[in-house]
Q: What sequence folds into this?
């Protein structure tokens, strides 16, 4: 008997312009590395630059979007171009919930930023669990 | 010589799955913060995907250099989707093939060797930045 393992799609804000974008990328990458059998990702611009396979991403996988600012590019682009996300997370809201400040640099995160990366990765992992339970 | 530009926009790959995406981003940050601060500007690639008016205006009003991390060329195609051709399009892997002694590693961020390669790449891209800022064709 084949056992179908459901994967959850994670769409990260790439946020090159803001520290929260780097935080978002690092946290998403951490979850993808820690949950390789249960998670998959796509580069957000592939909704435009890619083909049919990329555009049906959110139809093929229940998707969690993670955004670094209130412009919510990941959530909006996923919904507009692929399909409605199962969950939408916001870095500013996660930092506020955990009483953490946003990092103040764009790159080369180190121990000072690790608490924020851990907090965001933890919230993404929790969302993955919730989506898998719902499926 | 064409119009002089205050800003040259550098748009890297936004991927978190491949080392050359991370190298593209590190090269942009090196230009933005160290090699050509004040001249180089960037914006988040997904802002172009959702057609954010400020991001679209920045890209359409200034010369653009794209640095892509894989053959899917998201950065270049995101600019083309706005009806504009980037003034110069790089593939990050070519920085490595030109400097094979600097093998980058890492996915979300590059390692120390990758940072050195990004410095070398930024110095090369800076020449094109200067030409475009002066109103010359790349």
A:
């Amino acid at each position: 008997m084949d056992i179908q393992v459901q994967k959850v799609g994670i769409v990260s804000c790439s946020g090159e312009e803001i520290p929260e974008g780097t935080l978002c990328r690092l946290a998403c990458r951490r979850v993808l590395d820690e949950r390789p059998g249960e998670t998959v990702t796509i580069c957000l611009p592939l909704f435009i630059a890619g083909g049919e396979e990329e555009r049906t991403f959110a139809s093929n996988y229940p998707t969690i979007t993670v955004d670094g600012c209130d412009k919510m590019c990941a959530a909006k682009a996923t919904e507009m171009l692929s399909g409605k996300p199962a969950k939408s997370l916001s870095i500013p809201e996660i930092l506020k919930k955990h009483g953490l400040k946003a990092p103040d640099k764009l790159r080369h995160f180190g121990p000072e930023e690790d608490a924020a990366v851990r907090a965001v990765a933890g919230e993404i992992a929790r969302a993955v669990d919730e989506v898998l339970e719902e499926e | 010589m064409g119009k002089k530009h205050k800003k040259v926009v550098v748009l890297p790959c936004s991927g978190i799955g491949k080392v050359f995406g991370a190298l593209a981003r590190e090269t942009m940050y090196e230009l933005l913060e160290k090699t050509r601060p004040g001249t180089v500007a960037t914006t988040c690639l997904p802002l172009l995907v959702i057609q954010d008016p400020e991001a679209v205006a920045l890209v359409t009003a200034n010369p653009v250099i794209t640095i892509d991390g894989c053959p899917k060329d998201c950065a270049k195609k995101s600019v083309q989707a706005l009806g504009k051709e980037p003034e110069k399009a790089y593939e990050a892997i070519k920085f490595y093939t030109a400097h094979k002694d600097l093998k980058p590693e890492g996915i979300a961020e590059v390692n120390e060797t990758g940072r050195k390669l990004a410095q070398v790449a930024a110095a090369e891209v800076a020449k094109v930045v200067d030409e475009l800022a002066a109103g010359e064709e790349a």
In short: The radius of gyration of chain B is 14 Å. Chain B has one domain: 8-131. Helices of chain B lie at 19-35, 45-49, 53-61, 74-80, 93-98, 112-133. Chain B is about 50% helix and 10% strand.
